[in-house]
Amino acid sequence: MSYYNNRRTEPLPSEDVATWECVAQDCNGWMRKDFATKDAPPCPFCGSEMKTGTRHITALKNNNLHK
Ligand SMILES: [Zn+2]
After folding, report:
1. Domain of life of the organism in this record (predicted)?
2. pLDDT 10s digits, 48-64
3. What's the CA-to-centroid distance between 41 and ligand 1, angstroms?
């Protein structure tokens, strides 16, 4: 059962996605534009402005997102 569990090297699918990135240097807040409800939303964590950006992230099929 655990024979090949230690070395799972199969590549996960990933993609470039458009994001909003928090401008505060001490905040890692960001969100996918897909999930933003309006243009240039405030950071959900600290309320600062968000700037547009992109991230190359794993295309997750579940809701295991970083909070
Ligand atoms: Zn923030």
Report:
1. Bacteria
2. 999 999 999 887 665 55
3. 11
How far is the centre of ligand 1, averaged over its atoms, from the C-alpha of 27 (Å)?
5
Per-residue pLDDT reduced to its tens digit, 4-49: 666 667 778 899 999 999 999 999 999 999 888 888 899 999 999 9
Q: How many CA atoms lie within 13 A of 37 on its CB side?
A: 3
The Cβ-side half-sphere exposure at 21, using a 13 Å CA radius, reads: 10
In whole angstroms, what is the distance from residue 24 CA to residue 13 CA? Answer: 30
Ligand 1 mean position, distance from CA 9 (Å): 33
* Domain residue extents for the chain: 19-58
Task: Identify residues whose C-beta is under 5 A from ligand 1, the ion.
Answer: 22, 24, 27, 29, 43, 45-46, 48
